[in-house]
Write a structure and sequence with these properties.
Blueprint: H1 4-9, E1 15-16, H2 19-22, E2 40-43, H3 47-59, E3 64-67, E4 84-87, E5 94-97, E6 102-105, H4 111-119, E7 123-124, H5 137-143, H6 150-153, E8 160-166, E9 172-176, H7 188-192, E10 201-208, E11 210-211, E12 217-223, H8 226-239, E13 244-249, H9 250-260, E14 270-276, H10 280-296, E15 299-305, H11 308-319, H12 321-326, E16 330-333, H13 343-357, E17 360-366, E18 371-378, H14 383-402, H15 421-425, H16 427-440
Parallel strand pairs: 2-4, 3-4
Antiparallel strand pairs: 1-2, 5-6, 6-10, 7-11, 8-9, 8-10, 12-14, 12-15, 13-14, 13-17, 16-18, 17-18
């Protein structure tokens, strides 16, 4: 393929064709073994750059895979042979409007960078994946990422007011804008959030912001059984909406303790990290109520604090759980979710799968909304163990579906979960998804093999 016309049209240095330089763009964090070798990597800097690349790809029927920071966990940014990877890493502009409480950002900015920029204006962007310091806003849009505070404040789509999207023919379309209420036309903005690069390339996002969050009070509770911990989660969820309600099982507690030596109880079967960001008096009341509910559910130990650094240390323990477990071996990362009343059945079922398949499965969860992250650990040099881990991975998704849950709450379907999507959606919804994809991308060039 002669790429010179594309090179000549793009800014100098935009298109990378050197094999060694492109190697790092083949995978996201899922390390999908099916990753191919791209024809080129376009490190775009503007909507116009993206249009140029997509038009060239459409003319020559070349696949396009869009990539953010490469922290995805489902293989949604896996390159395929002969594709053009569009990397948005250099699209990093941001404008904050305190009067409308909005920020207009480009997709290459990291979640943490957006938070810091808006904080200078006394504002807050709530969605906070555990990888918030390294994941990009574009990637968050692609998978509709959630995070630790979504139990009270919602997920990415709840904060997206507008998008600029480059469609499969190179057309740039403006959707929504800095308006809190807008029901004119079909809700197309929402259609693209969570579409994993299969319907268009997002180049600009208008985000809704909130006033700065109050300093939260923190409660930590340990439990002798999984059932008592999940019973406490359900009791709390029925009574209130804490600003955080996170779960760690024994395997994840011990993995974090191995890394931090912060004094976590290694004998506990489960740990909950809870927060309230209400005004001081109301926060104290919420913490007291959660403490009472945990005690009634059989908590072994309860500890509360209003010290911000101390509280943040427990939150960081939860955030680092995936990295800590990853030290024990390679991971297959899940993010299945169920209705909160089914959380206990799901967690116990995962423990049973772990025992039956003789593979370690650590579980952390955004417990307040039923979104769990089972981490299937295996030794990549032990092929029998790796095969058992693959079986367990599928059985966890089957279990979640059987409980009325979902195969992904925030990581996306990508390539790794594609095989389970038809069983989850059902034939009618699956066909509707495909019809929408065909209508917006009739050549099938946008991220083929991902999700649909």
């Amino acid at each position: 393929m002669n790429l010179q016309p594309l090179i000549d049209t793009l800014p100098e240095g935009c298109l990378v064709v050197d094999q060694d330089r492109m190697a790092g763009y083949r995978w996201d964090r899922a390390n999908d073994p099916s990753a191919g070798t791209p024809l080129a990597v376009a490190r775009v800097t503007s909507t116009a750059d993206v249009q140029t690349v997509v038009r060239f790809a459409a003319t020559h029927n070349i696949s396009v895979v869009t990539r953010g920071a490469g922290t995805g966990l489902s293989g949604g940014a896996t390159a395929i042979d002969g594709c053009i990877v569009i990397s948005t890493e250099r699209m990093r502009a941001i404008e904050v409007d305190p009067q409308t409480r909005t920020a207009t950002v480009e997709p290459g900015l990291l979640n943490a960078e957006v938070k810091r920029a808006v904080a200078e204006h006394g504002l807050w962007y709530p969605p906070d994946p555990s990888s918030w310091e390294i994941c990009s806003i574009g990637g968050n849009i692609a998978t509709n990422a959630g995070g630790l505070c979504c139990v009270k404040y919602g997920v990415t789509t709840d904060y997206v007011l507008g998008l600029t999207v480059v469609l499969a023919d190179g057309t740039a379309v403006e959707l929504g804008g800095p308006r809190v209420k807008d029901v004119a036309g079909l809700p197309l903005t929402k259609l693209f959030v969570g579409s994993e690069g299969t319907l268009g390339v997002v180049t600009r996002i208008v985000l809704k912001l909130l006033p700065a969050q109050r300093q939260p009070a923190t409660l930590v509770s340990t439990f002798a059984t999984l059932e008592s911990a999940t019973e406490a989660v359900l009791a709390i969820s029925q009574r209130m909406r804490p600003s955080m309600l996170e779960f760690m099982d024994r395997a994840s507690i011990n993995a974090v303790e191995d890394m931090t030596r912060m004094g976590l109880d290694r004998t506990a079967e489960a740990l909950l990290v809870m927060q309230s960001d209400e005004p001081a008096g109301a926060a104290a009341e919420e913490i007291a109520t959660m403490e009472s509910l945990c005690a009634a559910s059989g908590a072994v130990e309860l500890y509360s604090t209003t010290d911000p650094d101390e509280g943040e240390s427990f939150v960081q323990a939860r955030r680092m759980a995936i990295n800590a477990v990853e030290r024990r071996g390679s991971l297959l990362l899940e993010d299945v979710g169920v209705p909160v009343p089914k959380l206990g059945t799901l967690v116990r079922g995962i423990a049973n799968i772990s025992s039956a398949r003789d593979v370690e499965i650590a579980v952390v969860a955004h417990a307040g909304d039923g979104n769990t992250h089972p981490l299937v650990v295996f030794d990549p040099t032990n092929h029998a163990q790796q095969a058992r881990a693959q079986i367990a991975y599928g059985e966890i998704m089957d279990l979640a579906i059987s409980l009325g849950g979902t195969i992904t709450g925030e990581h996306g379907v990508g390539r790794l979960k594609k095989a389970w999507l038809p069983a989850y959606l059902g034939p009618e919804a699956m066909a509707l998804n495909q019809r929408i994809k065909n209508a917006l991308d009739p050549q099938g060039i946008l991220n083929p093999g991902t999700m649909l």
